[in-house]
Amino acid sequence: MDKRFALALGLSLLVWFVWMMIFNPAPQRPHIAVPQAQKAESKQKQDTSTVPAINGAGAINTMVQQSARDESDIILTTKQYDVKITNRGAKIKNFQYIYYGKKIELVVEQKDLSPTSIVAKSDLDFQVYLSENEFLKGSALDNALWDFEKIDKTGVRFNLIVQNQTGEKILYERSYMFIEGKNYFELQQTVKNIGKAPLAFPENRLIMATPDYLGPTMDFNNRYNQVESVYFLNTSFETGSQGGGIFSDEQTIHRETGVTKWAGVRSRYFLLLMAPQGFTGSGIIHDGRKNHGKRIGIQIPTAVLQPGESTTKTFKVYVGEKDKQKLVEVDESLRDAADINVLIEPIRDFLVWCLLKINHLFGNFGWSLVIFSLLTKIVLMPLTIKSTESMKRMQELSPKVKELQTKYKDKPDQMNKKIMELYKKEKVNPLGGCLPLLLQLPFFFALYSALINSIDLWKAPFILWIKDLSLPDTVATVAGFNINILPVIMTATTYFQQKMTPGSDSSQQQMMIKMMPFIFLFIFWNMPSGLIIYWIMQNVLQIVHQLYINQRAKKATDGGN
């Protein structure tokens, strides 16, 4: 590759890497904290008829007035989902996403969160909160035993009666309705005043929240496996921020006002999004505490409810992969939730399709990447040959270029004009050496996107120590530092490939040859192993090609003598 372009590429990747380090910090590891919800759930079944709410500013001091006596589980099944819902808190206890016959559990158990010191509810909990205090600390509804009736094999309705501080009763209803053949379910939340006096809400709104967390279970200390809150406010897609970042404070709550089309939680491969139907929210609120769950609430202005009046809000809840087509089928407003570059997306989809097809033959995504690298090299071979010839011609013209640089050193504009005239006369394109690399860059970034976002490549092994192509090939950890093998191999092949490339006479280019591999080593150290395998294969194939060219040139020289 052209040395100047290689340096520019390396520096660009370095800036990108540093940006990721600053604005996407790895999770901290403070002491293990056990959430109150977990402690409560670990107790034996008990009568919840007098469970008090958390008191605080703006909270309605409520207690459960009427509830079920026994804890029960309800099973709902479609071709897309296999769900277990508990009446304790009317929340989803297990949520299995069925992907080509394989069931992927999206509820992360508390034992999988505690080692990472994440304080979060493990269930998929869709609660209604009356105040910000309840949103952060919980309410009487969270662990109460709700009454329920099963509508059919794909739907269930829960209800619970609570009493506020003045003795007035409030009825809460929550229903889950799964739809066969769809990648979403309908969630309906109702708050009804069944008392004798008007019911006013302390902040003139309700907060309808998403769950704290979303699976599948992974090593959540790895930066690629982080979970985050996401939302669409006014005209833009946004992600939630929490305490602990370099430029963030130890905030407890984050608020934004504006037209809210949807909100949810995003894990590495999956999305859970609540899209209001027939209305929009007036803003979002999300848990900004460091190392807490990613719960986000949609703020819904709510007027005073007269006796007998109720307010009902319906949501489509998408649960599935970051697939733009599936998202749009649920709601057009969800299009941006996939958060994939529009230029890279078609290449990424084509690349994943190719890998899947190749994998049907070889049964191993690692070897499929090797074959794909070889096919890419063959397709680009004509351009690579022209690139090599162009760089060789550039090397031959180097003395003449130096003469022009010396002659017109005090006239830079004229010097550049004369150099370009020389290139034109000799029919040499100074950028010709960069063309193959330029054409490979979209494949490189598309492959990165595929390895980060495609569930097909999750846990895909290769050989020996490489157990997951979507993660770094860590063989050991010393004092918190990961020891990876593939980046070292990549550095060595990059060095030899650079050293063999024509046009490396000047001291500046020699310096570049020595620096570039180590810049790449730093950038790629914790990249997915599949991406590094692709880069190594491109280097190896280029080395083999260059050896062939050098051997052919030697034979031609020997024959001429």
Largest sheet: 14 strands, antiparallel
Percent helix range: 25-40%
Percentage beta strand: 15-25%
Q: In terms of structural class, how would the helical and strand content be classed?
A: alpha+beta
Q: N- to C-terminal separation?
A: 31 Å
What is the count of DSSP helices, taking H or I runs of 4+ residues?
14
**How many structural domains does the protein architecture include?**
2
Low-confidence stretches: 1-8, 15-60
CATH structural class of the largest domain = Mainly Beta
- Mean pLDDT, to the nearest integer, reads 79
CATH architectural type of the largest domain: Distorted Sandwich
Radius of gyration: 30 Å
Q: How many beta-strand segments? A: 20
CATH topology of the largest domain, by name, is: Beta-galactosidase, Chain A, domain 5
Query: Which shape, going by the Cα principal axes?
Result: elongated
Topology:
Blueprint: H1 3-23, H2 36-42, E1 63-66, E2 73-77, E3 81-86, E4 91-99, E5 102-105, H3 110-113, E6 128-129, H4 132-137, E7 147-152, E8 155-163, E9 169-178, E10 184-193, E11 205-209, E12 228-233, E13 236-239, E14 253-266, E15 270-276, E16 281-287, E17 296-301, E18 310-321, H5 324-330, H6 345-362, H7 365-379, H8 381-396, H9 398-407, H10 412-425, H11 435-453, E19 474-478, E20 481-484, H12 486-500, H13 507-524, H14 529-560
Antiparallel strand pairs: 1-8, 2-3, 3-4, 4-5, 6-11, 7-8, 8-9, 9-10, 10-18, 11-17, 12-13, 12-14, 14-15, 14-16, 15-18, 16-17, 19-20
Helix pairs in contact: 1-13, 6-7, 6-11, 7-14, 9-10, 11-14, 12-13, 12-14
Provide a descriptive summary of the structure in words.
- The protein has 561 residues and is an alpha+beta fold.
- The protein is built from 14 helices and 20 strands.
- A hairpin with a 3-residue loop joins strand 14 and strand 15.
- The protein is elongated, with a radius of gyration of 30 Å.
- The two termini are 31 Å apart.
- The N terminus is likely disordered.
